[in-house]
Design a protein that fits this description.
two-stranded antiparallel sheet; MobA-like_NTP_Trfase; nucleotidyltransferase activity; seven-stranded mixed beta sheet; alpha/beta; transferase; 195 residues; Nucleotide-diphossugar_trans; 25% helix; Spore Coat Polysaccharide Biosynthesis Protein SpsA, Chain A; Molybdopterin-guanine dinucleotide synthase; single chain
Length: 195
């Protein structure tokens, strides 16, 4: 099998978490560790791993940066993260609230990268914009004008994107499961058998 190119990871860990009462969502525990720790572990082969968001605990060796302006949304956050990845040709872009993300899925996305990017499509057919792997140069060009509160979908719409529909294991939450509400968090915490 052909070796994969070096990659970096940008984990978006900002947002107000208004539906969770303003709690720092990446730091919430699911399965005995924070959701952020799970996502960073899934990207542990990346160099560097950059977390974008407010000051918060991050695993050792992880770079923490802040978007400008703070709270400006995913486009300024992505631009700030990309500024910190150096010369990596490929970058995984991940949300910090994916408690069932695995290294295998990140690797599968890296193997499927043939266009500007490849992202996960969930079982409803919805693109998961914060669960993908991209060519760094193409992504930097897309966010070169990181206006606050611009929808991420808008800036990515000009890129050539492939989609990957990973299979969810029977009886297990899908790897794209995120935690936006108290009900989502309760379901994630009650889910059987984490790896």
């Amino acid at each position: 099998m052909t070796p994969l190119p070096r990659f970096a990871a940008v984990v978006l860990a900002g947002g107000r978490a208004a539906r969770l009462g303003g709690q720092p969502k990446p730091q919430l525990d699911v399965g005995g560790r924070t959701m952020l720790a799970t996502v960073v572990d899934a990207a542990r082969d990346a160099d560097p791993v950059v977390v974008v968001g407010p000051p918060q605990p991050v695993p050792e060796g992880v770079v923490l940066v802040r978007e400008v302006p703070p709270g400006g949304g995913p486009v300024p956050a992505l631009a700030a993260g990309l500024a910190a990845v150096g010369d990596a040709e490929v970058v995984a872009v991940l949300a910090a609230d994916l408690p069932f993300l695995t290294r295998d899925l990140v690797t599968a996305l890296r193997r499927r990268l043939v266009d500007d990017g490849v992202l996960v499509v969930d079982d409803t057919g919805r693109d998961q914009l914060l669960l993908g792997v991209w060519r760094t140069a193409a992504l930097r060009a897309a966010v070169r004008d990181p206006r606050p509160h611009t929808p991420l979908r808008t800036v990515l719409s000009e890129l050539s994107v492939s989609r990957h529909r990973p299979a969810a294991l029977p009886g297990r939450p899908a790897p794209w499961t995120d935690c936006d509400t108290p009900a989502d968090l309760a379901r994630a915490r009650a889910a059987p058998g984490r790896e």
